[in-house]
């Protein structure tokens, strides 16, 4: 369990980015949403110790982030950054994924096992010898997830994992996230894409001006006046409501509900 208790983050002694946030994350998919500058990245960087609390506490599976290094915490909380190509530096996909486990000082056998597993998990088997830079946007995103997965973290933070991807690639990322959840991982999904929230999240946390405005189920979240927070309501929900069907999570459920009616 990740526990955030009354967390405050103030940059340079004056810019208050996170204001008294409480939050827990277990084996679930939590969407972290809010307009630009609302504090999402700042909050997420606390979960693996990249930032330390100005006030309050973050406890990751019993470890106080102030008392543990980022390297230590990264074994438990993996962070897949936005624009993953900035993080690649090896000449092949295989070396890129093996880098993390190597750094942990694992045996060659264990490194190979983890690398293979991570590449399989993101469906990049057969790409081992390719250059990370020569991959498509969707493949780069999957490679970035594999690199973090190879560290076997229990929790994953994914920052805008589907932004800029076409539908096919976005689908594949969604499948990976669902798999990770069913394998017992906790996932924190930072996103501006409300369709993704609707389809995937168990819970939604809304930040606004650094404060937690909402923390609850997806249905409750979409009952909020989202325009007030610069967020869009998914079109599917409007269409479904107009059709008299009400709350659905994806197009398949909408079509099923339509068919049942006829
Ligand atoms: N290193 C920094 N130094 C000073 N202020 C910062 C720093 N990083 C972020 N901020 C400020 O803290 C506030 C929260 O920023 P943060 O990046 O956490 O928001 P966000 O919700 O992730 O935004 P976005 O959706 O645009 O990525 C913003 O006002 C931002 O300008």
UniProtKB/TrEMBL annotation:
Gene Ontology cellular component terms for the protein in this record: ATP-binding cassette (ABC) transporter complex
Keyword tRNA processing: no
Predominant cellular place of this UniProt entry's protein: membrane
InterPro entries referenced in this protein's UniProt entry, alphabetically: AAA+_ATPase (IPR003593), ABC_transporter-like_ATP-bd (IPR003439), ABC_transporter-like_CS (IPR017871), ABC_transpr_CbiO/EcfA_su (IPR015856), ECF_ABC_transporter_ATP-bd (IPR050095), P-loop_NTPase (IPR027417)
Gene source species: Thermococcus argininiproducens
GO MF: ATP binding; ATP hydrolysis activity; ATPase-coupled transmembrane transporter activity
Stated family: Belongs to the ABC transporter superfamily.
Top-level taxon of the source organism: Archaea
Transmembrane segments: none
Name this polypeptide is given: Energy-coupling factor ABC transporter ATP-binding protein
Annotated localization: Cell membrane
Pfam families from the UniProt entry: ABC_tran
Keyword annotations of the record: ATP-binding, Cell membrane, Membrane, Nucleotide-binding, Translocase, Transport
Function, in words: Probably part of an ABC transporter complex. Responsible for energy coupling to the transport system.
